[in-house]
From TrEMBL:
<feature type="region of interest" description="Disordered">
    <location>
        <begin position="218"/>
        <end position="238"/>
    </location>
</feature>
<feature type="compositionally biased region" description="Low complexity">
    <location>
        <begin position="1"/>
        <end position="27"/>
    </location>
</feature>
<dbReference type="InterPro" id="IPR036551">
    <property type="entry name" value="Flavin_trans-like"/>
</dbReference>
<dbReference type="InterPro" id="IPR003382">
    <property type="entry name" value="Flavoprotein"/>
</dbReference>
<feature type="region of interest" description="Disordered">
    <location>
        <begin position="179"/>
        <end position="206"/>
    </location>
</feature>
<dbReference type="Pfam" id="PF02441">
    <property type="entry name" value="Flavoprotein"/>
</dbReference>
<feature type="region of interest" description="Disordered">
    <location>
        <begin position="1"/>
        <end position="31"/>
    </location>
</feature>
<protein>
    <submittedName>
        <fullName>Flavoprotein</fullName>
    </submittedName>
</protein>
<feature type="domain" description="Flavoprotein">
    <location>
        <begin position="38"/>
        <end position="174"/>
    </location>
</feature>
<feature type="compositionally biased region" description="Acidic residues">
    <location>
        <begin position="224"/>
        <end position="238"/>
    </location>
</feature>
Amino acid sequence: MGDTPTAPSTPSADTPAAPATATAAPPKAAPPPFTGRRLLLIASGAVNAVHLPYWLTWMRSKYPDTAVQVVATRSAQRFVTLQALSALTGRQAIGDTWTDDPLPTALHVELAEWADSVAVYPASLHYMARAALGLGDSPSLLALHGTAAPIVLAPSLPPRVEDNPAYVRHLKALAERPNLSVAPTRPGVSMTTGRRDGRTAPPLPDVLAELERLRGALPKNLGEEIEENSESDIDSLR
């Protein structure tokens, strides 16, 4: 799992440094344009996940008409609780595991059909590798493979991983998908070494801006398909 925090070390014009507490007020700067109305946010097991309450507070303030559905892996739940994620989005956050309860439809299909935007934030090395290899061993991964919506993965990586040949191969595999982008990482202080040799995910506003760029680049027929799928209701599965 990544061990660098997600917020930038120095504030910029539109993305302030991380708040001291999760209840701090959202940024005051104008947010980037974002037309998504159903954002599927997948949180994986990097320490950046601890900042999700901050960014979800900001998201709810700046984009009140956008529904955010969080799916959190088991590793992500070491850093942030499903209860907190549910309270801050107004929707029940989902653990990224298969349930033994009988359901009328498949969760991964409902997630893929519902979302008009997908962000993996943060994306750990393990999650990136699973996505690149085409694995479908969790609801979120199957949804990721089955959606036509724009997808942005925001990696959070330990020191020296970004130059590892295995990781570089994963990036090349992910680049083959026309509706997927991997957000550039930023230098970050490793929570373990104390040095600025980690790579951290960019602020969430940068991810939203990249989602919007991808949306504009999608073929018209894909955009129409996403809109047609808007009637999917994942609430019926919970």
